[in-house]
């Protein structure tokens, strides 16, 4: 049994040869198409993820995100969220791996780093939602949180909106100040501001913070533009929210994963509210979103292994085109399959 392994060198090669714009555009296109199939009932629903919280001196979350495409394969992402990684270890906040298993034999056919592709697919999913729900011609993007995910949010949204400027706010001034350098490839002016000013002037606002459980909201309910669209990205565990209840009460809300929306994300604050259309519903029937383009809307994103499955397909496709990835016998195949010692 051979497993194709994509390491950091391979992903760096894909980024440099194919280009991040081409990869992001492909992700947005394939994710929109995939969510539309899901909305039409043409593919399997993703199960909720599972995992555990890590307490103590170095808190965090370890999560397991599976998705099975019947007859095709199973994608499994193992991902950790460790908000102290940057300060303690100079590591990314999000680290993990994503694998593809053969649907019949269960053998692992591919294994890749999940860091870069998770960041890109999260931005791409937000871009799919934003293209459906934001006011056409939106030019001002505001980001609350200036970490790694803010980079791919800005990149992805720049591919679907005619952005003219980016507003950035972070409780860590050094992160906000360094953001312009990290998104210089977008060739857009970046202005460091506070959360209230960002909320007041944004056409589209993304919250991508490491706020602790019980520490939200990270923005107020207003003042704001009447057509504001919000992508709530950082609330991804029980008890963690970023948006004020008053904003949610006024908004049309779309979720990426109905099966986990009430356990994680902003819908935790709305126990009595019925779930509205999902992102899959909107992709399958964009006319559902049309009446909400001039009013407040929220995309409540908690992350989906369905999106990881599509993103891994995109990554493996580019790797195949470039002849990248090393095949390794990670899983054992005994000479006598009835004798585990006959390796």
UniProtKB/TrEMBL annotation:
One GO CC annotation: cytoplasm
InterPro entries: NAD(P)-bd_dom_sf, ODC_Mu_crystall, ODC_N
Statement: the UniProt record of this protein carries the keyword Cytoplasm: no
Superkingdom of source: Bacteria
Pfam families: OCD_Mu_crystall
Gene Ontology MF term list: alanine dehydrogenase activity
Keyword annotations of the record: Oxidoreductase
EC number from the UniProt entry: 1.4.1.1
Name of this protein: Alanine dehydrogenase
UniProt source species: Streptomyces iranensis
């Amino acid at each position: 049994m051979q497993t194709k392994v994509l390491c950091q060198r391979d992903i760096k090669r894909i980024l440099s040869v194919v280009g991040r714009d081409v990869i992001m555009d492909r992700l947005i296109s394939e994710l929109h198409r995939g969510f539309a199939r899901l909305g039409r009932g043409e593919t399997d629903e993703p199960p909720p993820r599972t995992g555990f919280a890590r307490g103590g001196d170095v808190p965090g979350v370890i999560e397991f995100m599976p998705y099975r495409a019947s007859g095709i394969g199973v994608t499994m992402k193992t991902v950790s969220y460790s908000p102290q990684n940057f300060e303690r270890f100079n590591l990314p906040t999000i680290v993990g791996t994503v694998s593809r298993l053969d649907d019949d034999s269960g053998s692992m056919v591919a294994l890749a780093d999940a860091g870069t592709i998770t960041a890109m697919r999260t931005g791409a999913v937000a871009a799919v939602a934003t293209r459906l729900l934001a006011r056409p011609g939106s030019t001002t993007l505001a980001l609350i949180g200036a970490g790694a995910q803010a980079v791919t949010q800005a990149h992805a949204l720049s591919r679907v909106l005619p952005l003219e400027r980016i507003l950035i706010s972070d409780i860590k001034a050094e992160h906000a100040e360094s953001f312009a350098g990290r998104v210089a490839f977008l060739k857009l002016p970046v202005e460091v501001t506070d959360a209230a000013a960002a909320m007041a002037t944004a056409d589209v606002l993304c919250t991508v913070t490491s706020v602790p459980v019980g520490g939200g909201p990270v923005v107020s309910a207003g003042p704001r533009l009447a057509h504001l669209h919000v992508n709530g990205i950082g609330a991804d565990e029980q008890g963690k929210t970023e948006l004020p209840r008053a904003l949610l009460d006024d908004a049309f809300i779309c979720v990426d994963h109905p099966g986990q929306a009430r356990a994680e994300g902003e819908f935790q604050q709305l126990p009595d509210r019925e779930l509205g259309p999902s992102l899959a519903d909107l992709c399958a029937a964009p006319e559902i979103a049309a009446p909400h383009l001039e009013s407040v809307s929220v995309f409540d994103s908690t992350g989906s292994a369905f999106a990881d499955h599509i993103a891994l397909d995109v990554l493996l496709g580019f790797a195949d085109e470039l002849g990248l990835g090393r095949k390794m016998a990670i899983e054992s195949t005994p000479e006598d399959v009835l004798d585990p010692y006959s390796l």
